[in-house]
Amino acid sequence: MRNITLKHLRLIDSAARLGSFAAAAEANHVTPPAVTMQMRQLEEEIGLPLFDRDGRGLTPTAAGQELLLAARKVEAALAECREALVSLKSLDAGRVTVGVVSTAKYFAPRMLAAFARKHPKVELQLVVGNRRDIVAQFETGLFDVCVMGRPPEGIAIESDRIGAHPHVVVAPPDHPLARKRRLTPQALAGETFLVREPGSGTRTLMESFFTKAGLAPSIGMEIGSNETIKQAVMAGLGLAFISAHTIAAELADGRLKVLDVEGLPLERAWFVVRLESRRLLPAAQALRAFLAKEGGTFLPAVPKKR
Fold first, then answer.
1. For a disulfide at 51, which of 58, 106, 217, 221, Cβ 3.0-4.6 Å?
2. Is the pTM of this model over 0.85?
């Protein structure tokens, strides 16, 4: 069976439908001797006759019926594949896999929902994880695009800016520093900080901020999620250097307070990123363009300094 080709299967189907090798040859633009030779080779390959011949023409044997069934399944699969490929050329079909670093989960679903309303037939798959995991999966080509705050280095990528990404220091509202204005970074020297894992974008930015200020912050806990960090700050376990886009709800209801620290908010940016080597299909290209053009409108509002 290894040597059976699509050409063989199409000849069998034509011969069964049209009743003769001559008609099958004409339908497939080959000579009758060529069809006879192909059928003989195929019968030798499987060790069984494919057709019975009588006055009415060709009738498939049991073996011929099995190959005929296979031929029609193959043609149906190819037709389905052709339809799928045509749909992938459209902006209104296809599947897009999006990687999102965990800090962006506070707004990324709103962006994707807005895109989905414009393109309801596009299937979106959202994968959320810490930066290390998302970057590792991104580098293997798992995602069409990624939303992150710091594009990975050392690999060929294309990135488009979505919008500003401010970072602040937060405290519980009853913390002594919460009532003070124009704090210097040195005013934070005696405070305990609750931090993300090493290598995370927020942790890297925090370390850069304190290094420039000549400080080494006291680390109380390393915590792998922003949600847990916020709960720990509200419980009075320490302060946190955190993305302002993760705390909108807690600021609105007074459970957290942004400290008025000189040099903060420290602004970076959000990006939509893709591998240069990954060719995007139309749906993924449309999502990338949408995030670059309109994604910034979905970023949470950040309170202004008073």
1. 58
2. no
